[in-house]
């Protein structure tokens, strides 16, 4: 049976450092330039995932058309002109009796990449973005058996 955890963190406490080695760059996702490469990487990273894997271009384009989509909150990591990771933020503005909340909607790192620190840098950049949007808290969903993801999210301050 699949167990999904919902993790939270305050954005009013110290954030992880978003500086990273010069072995990769972090850029904003530009749909007209990055959609196809992102889709290929997403499907490779999540090939066995029941929700995030096996997306078609229509799945990505439908998300981009959502009112919550903001390309400024969608980051990619690039090394040698190749996308090696990404972190996509979704802001929930429509919560009843609650302030808006930032969500790490999906984050992935190329499993064949030998570059270190990609997930930490992307996650920290996403948290910085949320703070810049004046949000007080962040959340995410993760499978309970995703040990690497859980370790990364703990390092980013989620619990």
UniProtKB/TrEMBL annotation:
Coiled coil: none annotated. PROSITE patterns: GNAT (PS51186). Gene3D superfamilies: 3.40.630.30. InterPro entries: Acyl_CoA_acyltransferase, GNAT_dom. Residues 24-159 form the N-acetyltransferase domain. One of its GO terms (molecular function) is acyltransferase activity, transferring groups other than amino-acyl groups. This is Unannotated protein. It comes from freshwater metagenome. The lineage of its organism: unclassified sequences, metagenomes, ecological metagenomes.
């Amino acid at each position: 049976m699949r167990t999904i955890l919902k993790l939270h963190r305050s954005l009013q406490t110290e954030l992880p450092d978003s500086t990273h080695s010069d072995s990769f760059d972090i850029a904003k996702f530009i749909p007209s330039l990055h959609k196809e490469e992102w889709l290929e990487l997403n499907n490779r990273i999540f090939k066995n995932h029941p929700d995030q894997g096996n997306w078609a271009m229509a799945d990505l384009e439908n998300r981009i058309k959502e009112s919550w989509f903001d390309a400024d909150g969608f980051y990619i990591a690039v090394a040698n002109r190749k996308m090696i990771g990404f972190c996509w933020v979704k802001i929930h503005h429509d919560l009843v009796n609650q302030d808006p909340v930032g969500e790490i909607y999906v984050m992935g790192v190329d499993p064949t990449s030998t570059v270190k620190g990609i997930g930490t840098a992307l996650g920290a950049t996403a948290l910085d973005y949320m703070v810049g949007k004046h949000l007080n808290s962040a959340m995410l969903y993760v499978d309970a058996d995703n040990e690497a993801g859980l370790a990364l999210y703990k390092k980013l301050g989620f619990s």
